[in-house]
Design goal:
The protein is mainly α and about 280 residues long. The chain folds into three domains: about 100 residues, Four Helix Bundle (Hemerythrin (Met), subunit A) (Up-down Bundle); about 55 residues, Arc Repressor Mutant, subunit A (Orthogonal Bundle), CATH 1.10.10; about 60 residues, Orthogonal Bundle (Arc Repressor Mutant, subunit A). Helix content is about 65%, strand content about 0%. The chain is built from 13 helices and no strands. Helix 4 packs across helix 5, helix 4 runs parallel beside helix 6 and helix 7 crosses helix 9. The N and C termini lie far apart (about 80 Å).
Length: about 280
């Protein structure tokens, strides 16, 4: 049954358009030679290396429509079509190199799943924003399909527990996959945020640690401690650090000695320091 469905999909992909200008059917060379005939010649013992490369290039050109079709099939996932086409061509070349004409299979049916698998491996191994386990990578598409089916059947999104029961996996695996899902395509700091393509780069709107923040905290703490000081000690501190007075000027204003001002100031500062940061 799977082979029949695959053949039907292959036929659908390779059927010519109604226009006479449609590309030749995959598996048939414009000169009339089939892919199987070219591969048979390519695998003959006496074929030169140059001729083998010519045959390989002809096979690649012959199956270019299949490569482009597969690349466009996955273009909506955010990767450039050109990159996906290169990956698909790699899968096609691998299929050409590994195909055994003596088995009697049609090359197109053999190559199609190999090309498709190469593109899928590219998404699995190369396009995640962070490295996650193979198990999580493989569970993600299953989780997507199960979520869509549940939403269609029940009109709401499933809970992680319901997804775990549907897929036959643990709740922890579902939770890890849901968390990793958000990391598949993280936002670029150079791109615009909030869905506004004309907006400023996201990096310019991210908050950063403010070095002056600790000074604000210390200032508010100190304000409360100063309010609780005796009036003379508070006056000395305010005149010295906010009035920019010398100890001699403060002593003259308060009618005490400069030595007394020095002792009171030292004692008061020690008290404030211990109240703010501990002894």
């Amino acid at each position: 049954m799977r082979r029949l469905r695959l053949r039907q999909e292959v036929i659908g992909l390779s059927s010519p358009a109604t226009s006479a200008a449609a590309p030749p059917r995959a598996g048939a060379d414009p000169a009339g030679q089939s892919a199987e005939a070219l591969l048979s010649e390519m695998n003959l013992p006496g074929v030169s290396g140059a001729r083998r490369e010519e045959l390989r290039a002809a096979l690649v050109r012959m199956h270019a429509p299949m490569v482009r079709r597969i690349a466009h099939r996955y273009a909506h996932r955010g990767e450039p079509v050109e990159d996906l086409a290169q990956v698909a061509y790699l899968g096609l070349v691998n299929a050409i190199n590994r195909f055994d004409p003596e088995r009697g299979d049609q090359f197109f049916v053999y190559a199609y799943p190999m090309v498709l698998g190469e593109v899928r491996r590219y998404f699995r191994d190369r396009t995640w924003g962070i490295r996650v386990s193979r198990r999580i990578q493989e569970l993600r598409p299953r989780l997507q399909r199960a979520t869509q089916r549940f939403l269609q059947a029940h009109g709401r999104s499933p809970t992680p527990g319901e997804l775990a029961a549907i897929l036959g996996v643990s709740l922890e695996e579902v939770t890890d996959t849901l968390l990793a899902w958000e990391s598949y395509r993280p936002l670029s700091l150079d791109g615009a945020g909030d869905g506004d393509p004309e907006g400023s780069p996201l990096a310019e709107r991210l908050g950063a640690e403010d070095a002056a923040l600790q000074h604000v905290v210390d200032g508010e703490t100190l304000h409360g401690l100063l309010a609780r000081l005796p009036e003379r000690e508070r006056t000395i501190v305010l005149l010295r650090f906010f009035g920019n007075r010398t100890q001699s000027q403060i002593a003259q204003e308060l009618g005490i000695s400069q030595m007394h001002v020095s002792r009171l100031l030292s004692k008061t500062l020690t008290h404030l320091r211990e109240q703010m940061y501990g002894p």
